[in-house]
Structure formats: structure tokens, C-alpha cells
Design a protein that fits this description.
Elements (H helix, E strand, L loop, with lengths): L1 H18 L9 H24 L14 H22 L15 H25 L7 H8 L4 H22 L12 H13 L1 H14 L6 H15 L5 H16 L8 H26 L8 H18 L1 H29 L10 H4 L1 H5 L14 H8 L14 H34 L3 H6 L1 H4 L6 H22 L6 H19 L1
């Protein structure tokens, strides 16, 4: 079934490539828009076809735990929609320096690169699912229920680590650990520990929606993750905290209709987060406050929240939509800029990036002089016309780095390898009953804006950290039996009353 779905993607890819036999520089705008439109429609349609054809996997009861389904969903929301709008309405990105001189034909070919990667990813996923199931130790870990009280204690340590990170290196936006001297290594260890927050949240969501834990730990943890995200200067921490909770509910069997109120609430928080992040970034860029001063961080975050509230719902919504269409539209055209300049201006990277992945996996906290896996700053200067003195980075993208490695072959190779990794990951974690751990890795493996090397390194590092953290989280702790007995007694009481 999965292979038949993949064949649909192959057919769409081949059709689009045959249609575009004319070199990209020879395409007029009308033909470029037609090719891009067909490729985007094929990507959306074939994502649905492949999602409907995913096979049954031991321990996986829901479609929402299959990584390629989640990646395809995010790809369609965050790339297909804004790309279609940007090709239809050229005024959205008109005059932007990043795509100055970029011919529309190359942008259309960039969409074909996305379609080719999606094709290879589904094939790789079918191969990855053929690995063996989880071993005895992993299954034993998955059978443990854990304690809500212990999970809250671990999360309190995560919050303390987040505060320590702010006081040594500032909030996440604008933080440069490489300039912190002796605090740089400390920051790296703190970041690894801070990542555990999303794992604890996913564990609480998975247990609560299956009625193994009460709901109050989930409410506390969700609020904590969202509040930490609101003060970070980034929008994604708030977004992923919301999405993982909703996906855990769907995986537990809750009907989508029951989740509409929660989804609306999370959506409103997300709109506020965009407005707050913009305000916080303006303050950071202007040097208006010391981001290492916890009091100043709290005051600025409160001020940003007040400004967002004063602006009103319509202004915040319009700002969110404009930012989404502009930023994601730019990312949709990034592969075109790569195709135009590689290898005409910059040579292919070759296989050295793949071969260097094992070295990159070693934490920088251990290997202080480790080379940078992906220089987003250099990419912005070389490919997107950024000023040489800029400190900002640009999204290389999963498919963009594939082309930089070795053209169309590199794109297919990246998709195939990523699919194999995701298939093996689901096979092992799903059969062990560790679906919550897979959800905690969601922000890493669906982030197509990251290059393949950086994504793979982050995935391996977080998998190791999360497995170690899970052994601690699921270890019976003081008060575990008492809390469990109280909750089970309350559930039995409800059942008796209902009868």
C-alpha cells in the first residue's frame, strides 16, 4: 500500500520533470507559474494518497504517529500554501533583496526539488519500517507508567535550568553561546537539559488522555512550556507545545471535534506569541534591555503581552498572516536561489557533509572546537544577498542542502535517508510503547527549514538525551503509589456514581 502511494508521487515527479525539459532560465513567467502550480498540487495530492496508504505498525494505533504524515502535513501548511500564494501574487515578495535577480523559472524548479525529496522520503520510509522491533529493555521502559508528581519535580528542574540559561547567556533570541567564554560549555549542557521540557509535556499528555494520570500535571506543564516560549523571542516553542498536546489527544483516540475548543485556544495564544516575539526582538536588537537580567526579561515580556492585547485581535491576526506569508513564501523560493547558483557560482558540497555527521553528533560541550554543521549566516550572504556584516541566518532547508550536496541526486539521497531514519524510529519506539518520545522529537524531524546534516545531528542527540531522561521520568518515585491509588480511586468513584 505504501509503495503504491509512493508510485503516485513518482508519477507526478516524472510528469513535472518532463514538462520542464526547458532550462529554468528559458522559462517565461507564465510557464514557470504553471510548472510550480502543478508541482504544488501534486505534492499536496500525493501527500494525501501516501498518508492513506501507510501500513500497520506494531504498537502504533494512530495515523498521527507516522512521522512522514506529520512532515507532509507541515510541509503543505508551511510551504505549499504560501508558495502557491507567492507564485499567484508576485507583489507579496516584490522588491525583497533576498530574491533580487532570482528568475521565476528557478523558483519553479525549486518546487520540483521539494516534490522529488517527498518522493524519496516515502520510499525511504517503507525501507526503514522493515527494521526489527524494539528490544526487551526498550519494551520494559515503555511498559512503565511513571509518576505525575515525579514528572512535575523533573520539570521544576527544567525551569531552573531555563532560568540559569537566561542569567548566563540571555534569552534564546540573540543568544550567542560561542561568545560566552567559559559559560559557553555550561550553556550547551543547560540547553540539552532544557530540551527535556517538551518530553515531560508529551509524557503527561499521553498519560492524561489515556486516563492513566490526572489532568492537572498536563495543565501545569502546558502553561509552563507556553510561558517559557513567550519570553524566548521565538514563536515555535509555543507552537510545538500546542501541537504536541493536540496530537497526543488524537493518538489517544479523542475525536477531532472534541479538540476544537482547545485548538482555538492554542491558536489565539499562537497569534499573541507572534506579536510578542516581534516586540521582544525589537527590544533585543535595539539593546533596550539586558537579556541576562531575569527581572528585565519578565518586565519586557509583560510589556510585550500588554502591547499585543492593546493592539487588538484584528491587528494581531493581520500581522501573523502577513509574517507567515512573507517568511514562508521566502523559504519556498530559497531552493530556486540554490539551483541558480549551484554549481554555477558555488561548487557542490559533495559527500563530506554526510561523512561528517558522526563527528557532528559529538556534543559541543565535549568537543569545544567542533566545526559548525551548517552556516546559515554564510548561506544568507552567499545565496540570499544578505549584507556581509549581517548576523542573521537563513533557512537552508532540507531539500536545499540536498541540492547543494550533489544536485538532483543529492535531493533524492537526502529524502531517502531521512525517510529511512523516520521509519526505523517509528518501528523501534512504536513497538516499545514510547509514542510520547516520538512526539517529543516532532519539532526536530518535521522542521524542513533545517539542513539535513543539522537535523540528523539534532535528532540523534535528542534521542539519546530523551531516552536517558525517560529512564529517569518513568522510574517509580516517592509518592508514586499514593498518587496513583488516589487517582484510580477517584476514577472508580466516578464510575460508581455514573452507574
Amino acid at each position: 500500500m505504501l509503495v503504491s502511494g509512493s508510485l503516485l508521487v513518482v508519477a507526478a515527479t516524472v510528469t513535472a520533470l518532463l514538462w520542464s525539459l526547458v532550462p529554468p532560465e528559458g522559462l517565461d513567467d507564465r510557464s514557470s507559474r504553471m510548472i510550480a502550480g502543478v508541482a504544488l498540487a501534486a505534492l499536496a495530492g500525493c501527500s494525501i494518497a501516501c498518508a492513506r496508504a501507510v501500513p500497520r505498525v506494531e504498537g502504533v494505533r494512530s495515523l498521527w504517529l507516522h512521522p512522514p504524515v506529520l512532515l507532509a502535513l507541515w510541509l503543505n501548511i508551511a510551504l505549499v500554501v504560501p508558495a502557491a500564494i507567492s507564485f499567484a501574487d508576485g507583489d507579496i515578495l516584490h522588491g525583497r533583496d533576498a530574491i533580487a535577480g532570482l528568475e521565476l523559472g528557478y523558483s519553479a524548479f525549486g518546487v520540483l526539488a521539494v516534490l522529488l525529496m517527498a518522493t524519496a522520503l516515502w520510499f525511504g520510509y517503507a525501507v526503514g519500517l522493515r527494521v526489527g522491533p524494539a528490544g526487551t529493555r526498550l519494551r520494559a521502559l515503555g511498559r512503565k507508567r511513571g509518576s505525575p508528581a515525579w514528572a512535575l519535580c523533573v520539570y521544576a528542574a527544567v525551569v531552573a535550568a531555563s532560568v540559569a540559561r537566561i542569567q548566563t547567556g540571555g534569552i534564546a533570541y540573540g543568544a550567542l553561546p560561542g561568545e560566552l567564554g567559559e559559560f559557553g560549555v555550561f550553556q550547551q549542557w543547560v540547553i540539552y537539559f532544557q530540551d527535556i521540557g517538551i518530553l515531560v509535556l508529551c509524557l503527561a499528555a499521553a498519560r492524561a488522555f489515556r486516563r492513566q494520570w490526572p489532568l492537572y500535571p498536563l495543565a501545569v506543564l502546558a502553561c509552563g512550556q507556553i510561558l517559557l516560549g513567550l519570553g524566548s523571542g521565538f514563536m515555535k516553542p509555543v507552537f510545538w507545545a500546542s501541537v504536541t498536546v493536540l496530537l497526543a489527544a488524537l493518538d489517544a483516540g479523542l475525536r477531532p471535534a472534541r479538540l476544537i475548543p482547545a485548538a482555538v485556544l492554542f491558536g489565539l495564544v499562537g497569534v499573541v506569541a507572534v506579536s510578542m516575539a516581534e516586540t521582544i526582538r525589537l527590544h533585543v536588537d535595539s539593546g533596550a534591555y539586558d537579556t541576562r537580567n531575569l527581572g528585565a526579561v519578565v518586565t519586557t515580556t509583560q510589556s510585550a503581552a500588554a502591547d499585543s492585547w492593546a493592539a487588538g485581535a484584528k491587528a494581531n491576526w493581520d500581522a501573523t498572516v502577513d509574517r507567515f506569508l512573507f517568511r514562508q513564501g521566502m523559504i519556498a523560493h530559497t531552493p530556486g536561489a540554490i539551483i541558480m547558483k549551484t554549481p554555477n557560482v558555488f561548487p557542490f558540497l559533495g559527500l563530506r557533509e554526510f561523512l561528517a555527521i558522526p563527528a557532528y553528533v559529538v556534543p559541543r560541550a565535549i568537543w569545544v572546537g567542533k566545526p559548525v554543521a551548517s552556516a546559515g549566516n554564510r548561506f544568507a550572504i552567499d545565496y540570499l544577498n544578505a549584507a556581509p556584516q549581517t548576523s542573521s541566518s537563513a533557512a537552508v532547508t532540507l531539500f536545499g542542502e540536498g541540492y547543494m550536496i550533489f544536485g538532483w541526486t543529492g535531493v533524492a539521497m537526502v529524502g531517502l535517508l531521512h525517510g529511512m531514519i523516520l521509519g526505523a524510529l517509528l518501528r523501534k519506539l512504536g513497538s516499545a510503547g514510547l509514542g510520547f518520545l516520538l512526539l517529543a522529537l516532532l519539532p526536530t524531524f518535521v522542521d524542513f527549514e533545517s539542513p539535513f546534516t543539522s537535523m540528523t545531528v539534532a535528532l540523534v542527540q535528542r534521542l539519546v538525551v530523551f531516552l536517558l531522561a525517560s529512564t529517569v521520568l518513568l522510574t517509580p518515585a516517592l509518592g508514586d503509589g499514593r498518587v496513583r491509588r488516589q487517582y484510580e480511586e477517584s476514577q472508580q468513584g466516578r464510575g460508581t456514581a455514573g452507574g
